[in-house]
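To assess whether the prediction recovers the assembly geometry, we first specified each molecular entity separately, as shown.
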Amino acid sequence: MTQVLVALGLVAGALGLVGWLRLGIGRELAVAALRAAVQLAVVGAVVTAIFDSAGLGAAFVAVMACAATVTSGRRLRGVPGAWVRAGAAILAGALTGLVPLLVAGAFSTRPRELVPVAGILIGGAMVAASVTGSRLVASLREGVADVEARLALGVPASEAVAPRLRGAIVTGVVPVMDQTKNAGLVTLPGTFVGLVLGGASPAEAARVQLTVLLALLAVELVAALVVARLVVAGLTLPGERVAVPGEG
Amino acid sequence: MRAAARAELADVTVARGGRDVLHRVTLAVPAEGVTALVGPSGAGKSSLLRCLVRLDEPRAGRILVDGSDVRTQDPCALRRRLGLVAQAPAMLPGSVRENLAYGLPAPATEDELVVALGRAGLPVAFLERDARGLSGGEAMRVAIARALTRGPEALLLDEPTAALDDATAAGVADQLAAVAAEGVTVLIVSHDEALARRLASWAARLRDGRLEASGPASSVLGS
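The predicted structure of the complete assembly is given in tokenized form:
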């Protein structure tokens, strides 16, 4: 209980800072904290049942994918079919990691292993899709004149937006690259900590963590690439034109 | 006697932001010389230029370039044939060299770059200048030269001398006169009627999105 109270105190401090600096994200931050509390409480209550049933396990993975899609889709506001595009990118990214790991037998399909691994991969794909997609939309908004100067020189829309697309993809995968570079130095990643706390040997925990981290590199890159391509496709109009969504 | 038309608008209506900015405009742009499109701000002049290169699509009506509907033409090829230079044109990141090379077939030779820069009336040393550090007049000259690297049949310019001092504006006007003398159709949109009178042989006047007059520059603009 003390742990939760301290954490609540930290959230209150963060909210105070956000208010003082007028960052305008106080509500979102409070909702994020509340959601995490409720969601973890629910998962804590039902995880045993999920881990014991293949059907429930699969359903839970589907719920994760849907929740990730909704979260990422919101970051693509103004892009036609934002949720479908975000969902496709998250699915493509997560499956890029999950399928080879399962086929190679690195993890089994038992819910006890599948659910946490799928969750990590879906979460990584979601972050990459959100960061890449929102950065790309913002970059197109800032660079309308640049894009139109390129279009006016007779290049296709895909080429006119290419520098912004590359920039957004790089921004989207920087967090996972930094996380991978600094694993064990700056951070002890969650899987490692969880396994050690759960009684696994540090060597075993490190092996599993390394597998997940390396898979995440591919997962997040694929999610970033796919969301960037799909956002551009959604904003490209007939006649090699680019429709940039307005603010908001 | 009017020359053949480079571009024709037939009953063109254009909407932006939910309201019509051009109402049923019918207009021909001669293939030869300089045509000026004048009128106050908000008259729909810029929208007309954007529609000619399909950066915007009309809500109604037809636009013909060299006799064929622009909707049936490849938009990239159309934009290479009609070089659009925006008001306060965007310089791409990098040097003037990189901006000019963007329009040339890769890899651009030094000779091609020097010729392109010469058309902007700027010295060779400008090739290495940071394009985003240029003054308004220098950027306009480089943008015109960059559009010309595509070998366009027409050059469309949106307020090419707005926000320039008189001397710089006169330099840009000289550059445009030289381009027209090479046989390139020049269409300028401007609220600067002195510039239009100096350069144009043909003119049209727009007001509140409607065509008020078109014809020989001397009759539309007065003397």
